[in-house]
Amino acid sequence: MRRSDRPTVRLHLHAQDPEARRRIDAAVTEALAAATPRVSVVLDGPELPSETIAALVSGLRAVRQQGGAIAIEPATQAIRDSLLLTGLDRVFAFPLDPDGAERPPRGGRRARLAAKAAAALFAALLVVLHRPVSAAAPSTTDPAAIVARVIERNPDLSSYQGRMHVDVRLTSFPFISQHFDASTYFKRPANYEVVFDHVPSYARGFAKIFTDVGDPTDWERRFRISYEGERTMRGHQDVVLRMVQRVRGMIDHETVLIDPATWTIDSIRYDYYNGGHITMMQTFRQIGPYSLLAEQDAEIAIPHVTAVAHGTYNDYRTNVAVDDAVFTKHN
């Protein structure tokens, strides 16, 4: 069966089912095999727990990256009222209609609930979208727990290799541009490497930032890490970590923004003692059941040099044999 021919995945779920997250994840994984993934959920139960909404939102993010949607069909009045009150009935619907929530409510029950929805929607979605993805998740104020979740966000992924393509453009004199190609490798428990096909000597510093950002397995050994609260990033709240090198180098500190709904690194900023800084932004996409790096954008501002860089990642092969020699450092 071709991907485009796959039907909507259907799931009948009790909202308080302790296996709700696992079942939603399984349905989303199945749907992602289609060109436009669609999941239809008949949702039953006397109430709609935030843990179940969090699981649905996590799944919705995954399918939206591929142009799909998740629709919820409430099987009880309580579920229907919960969806109406928060506006989630328009978020979880076919066809995907992100502008629907902006339309004024019509009469009947929706109109009576709408007066409460304006205040409740913002608060409810913040709680749902930005809480840990599991009720059993460790505290998001514990730096070690946060780093552990970043490392373990793809628990069934033992290895991968792929290709990276980077364009660097100096926005200061001499205004040159350079393209790089590289292979990326990952192997559990703590191996990540970027091997560039060819890097001119003048560009080695730019290439290195793409290598360093991808290896959180080494953070606790190299840095003193502290939790610095939350920050808005792309419309959601990220947890913020401040990292200071245990052995002083050129970098004063690094600031890392992590999405606690997906445990992906949205951004990392390097602040140098000389006043310079480099900021890297990242986006991810679903490759089968795994969330893997899709794009990186860097802004570089160091004394006498400013530049921008854009990297894309493709041709992933997951759970493949990777020779340990790949991770041997060559100076």
Structural features:
single chain; outer membrane lipoprotein receptor (LolB), chain A; elongated; alpha+beta; 2 domains; 331 residues
Total count of helical runs of at least 4 residues: 8
Q: Give the structural class.
A: alpha+beta
The radius of gyration computed from the alpha-carbon positions, rounded to a whole number of angstroms, is 22 Å
Number of strands: 13
CATH topology of the largest domain: outer membrane lipoprotein receptor (LolB), chain A
The helix content, as a percent range, equals 25-40%
The total number of structural domains is: 2
The averaged pLDDT comes out at: 79
Question: How do you describe this structure in short?
Answer:
The protein has 331 residues and is α+β, with helices and mostly antiparallel strands.
